[in-house]
Amino acid sequence: MQFPITIGLHRSRFLDLGFGFIALLASGVILTFPQSALFQLLIFTAIWVAAGIAWRQLSPKCSAIRLEHSGQISVVCHGTNDFLPAELLPDATVHPWLTVFRLKTESGDAFILFATVDSLKRQNFRRLRVFLRWQADFNALNDDA
Question: Mean pLDDT in the chain?
């Protein structure tokens, strides 16, 4: 791989459609229960408010990340133009369709980033997955093996 690699982050249509489908399904289930109309309206409103909050949280807080040869990750947050160093936090999920990882900047801001097949270019998605696997620590000090 040629380093540094700069990857632009975009919103995922798959996750948007998934959340919309789940909200519609939950609304349909609530409307089928024999309850008073006021109770159904209250639950229906709560479902759509929660879905709206979840949908808003799916927007990436960072517009781009840069992967360095040394293993360093830098991020550009919305509203800034400079790359800030970030630390990769443990417990990343790297899957062929979905990658979820957490970053923490030096200022203490923590971000959860979702990368799906449709939110990045195919080559960048593959590079990100390989980079995150390189950063994995499989032999922790408290490992019994």
Answer: 86
